[in-house]
Amino acid sequence: MKKLTALAIKTAMAHPGIYQDGDGLFLKVDKRGGACWLLRPQRDGKRQDQRQCSPVFRRRTC
Predict the structure, then answer these.
(1) pTM here?
(2) pLDDT confidence of 54, banded at 50, 70, 90?
(3) Nearest-5° Cα angle at 47, 42 to 52
(4) CA gap 40, 46 in Å, rounded
(5) CA-based Rg of the chain, rounded to a whole angstrom?
(6) Closest-CA residue to 21 (of 59, 60, 52)
(7) Minimal CA–CA distance to 8: which of 26, 32, 23?
């Protein structure tokens, strides 16, 4: 899996969806332009989503 580049993130911000960066890290972009990083580690075979919103992104909508 390729890592997300700065250009890929900038492009993704215009298109809602979930973009994988690898090793359980995802960028979730909503249709209003907000975005959050999601970390999806697994423990005992169960996924545990952790949301990390950054002030770099304009709105916290996740």
Answers:
(1) 0.71
(2) low
(3) 90
(4) 10
(5) 12
(6) 52
(7) 26
Closest CA to 2 of 27, 24, 20: 20
Contact between residue 48 and residue 41 where contact means Cβ atoms under 8 Å apart: yes
* Nearest-angstrom CA–CA distance, 6 and 51: 20
Closest CA to 39 of 17, 13, 20: 20
Which DSSP helix (H) or strand (E) runs through 46? strand 46-47
Q: Nearest 10 degrees: CA dihedral of 48, 54, 59, 62? A: 0
In terms of Cα–Cα distance, which of 22, 23, 27 is closest to 38? 27
pLDDT for residue 52 is more than 60: yes
Question: What's the CA gap between 48 and 50, in Å, rounded?
Answer: 6
Confidence of residue 45 (pLDDT cuts 50, 70, 90): confident
